[in-house]
């Protein structure tokens, strides 16, 4: 089990008389992730509404802020107990046996155009043995064929753009792996995390995008960019792609 302490500091300048915010920065509470302590700080005059998705466990914070500077800070201490299984025993689940709430992670989405990646996916991975070995091969292909380059892409960059340009940041690695998996009828989705263990020369600690793949009727986390320590992957938000769980800002991470 790993215990991580992290903090997120967000600062905005509200230009309009009122502005609405919807944030997903609090650590998710799951069977494998326990929030030991946390503190959320924001101006006392601002009213907030909290909501937790009953399926994905995403914790959303909604607020309306007046014109001027808005500072928000979240601090959390989280125990993470990742499930470790024998990868040789992990198999792909036939589409006819997938739970209905997993089906939509097979479909193309805003940043993961799996329909446009199908020909490539079948050519590169269609003949491989199904299961974790094929998913691992997809992860390794993305890691070895895409170069990590900060600020090389923007909010419009999709998986198809990444496979053409071969450069990107963590979310681009994640989108491409997700798109290829879906093109092969392997459910895949994105999770927002933290880049715990990343090379300090890459800059200050930051939010991080990783992939969840559905194998043997469970979701498993993988990091196609390879910049973080797998056992330190902390779950914040989960969605189809970055359109569901966008992130921006800086954070601080420490292992306790």
From TrEMBL:
<dbReference type="InterPro" id="IPR038765">
    <property type="entry name" value="Papain-like_cys_pep_sf"/>
</dbReference>
<dbReference type="Pfam" id="PF21295">
    <property type="entry name" value="Bact_transglu_N_2"/>
</dbReference>
<protein>
    <submittedName>
        <fullName>Transglutaminase-like enzyme</fullName>
    </submittedName>
</protein>
<feature type="domain" description="Transglutaminase-like">
    <location>
        <begin position="162"/>
        <end position="226"/>
    </location>
</feature>
<dbReference type="InterPro" id="IPR048930">
    <property type="entry name" value="Bact_transglu_N_2"/>
</dbReference>
<dbReference type="InterPro" id="IPR002931">
    <property type="entry name" value="Transglutaminase-like"/>
</dbReference>
<dbReference type="Pfam" id="PF01841">
    <property type="entry name" value="Transglut_core"/>
</dbReference>
């Amino acid at each position: 089990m790993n215990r991580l302490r992290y903090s997120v500091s967000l600062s905005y300048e509200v230009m309009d008389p009122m502005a609405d915010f919807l944030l997903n920065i609090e650590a998710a509470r799951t069977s494998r992730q326990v929030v030991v302590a946390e503190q959320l700080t924001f101006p006392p005059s601002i009213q907030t509404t909290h909501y937790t998705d009953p399926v994905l466990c995403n914790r959303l914070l909604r607020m309306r802020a007046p014109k001027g500077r808005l500072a928000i800070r979240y601090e959390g201490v989280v125990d993470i107990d990742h499930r470790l299984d024998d990868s040789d025993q992990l198999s792909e689940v036939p589409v006819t046996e997938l739970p209905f709430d997993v089906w939509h992670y097979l479909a193309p989405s805003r940043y993961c155009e799996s329909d446009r990646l199908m020909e490539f996916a079948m050519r590169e991975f269609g003949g491989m043995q199904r299961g974790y070995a094929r998913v691992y091969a997809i992860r390794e292909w993305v890691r070895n064929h895409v170069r990590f380059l900060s600020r090389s892409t923007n909010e419009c960059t999709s998986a198809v753009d990444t496979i053409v340009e071969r450069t990107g940041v963590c979310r681009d690695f994640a989108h491409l792996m997700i798109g290829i998996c879906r093109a092969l009828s392997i459910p895949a989705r994105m999770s927002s995390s933290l880049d715990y263990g990343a090379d300090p020369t890459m800059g200050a600690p930051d939010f991080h995008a990783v992939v969840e793949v559905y194998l043997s009727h469970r979701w498993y986390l993988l990091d196609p960019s390879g910049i973080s320590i797998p056992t330190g992957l902390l779950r914040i938000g989960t969605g189809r792609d970055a359109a569901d769980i966008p992130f921006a800002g800086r954070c601080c991470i420490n292992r306790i």
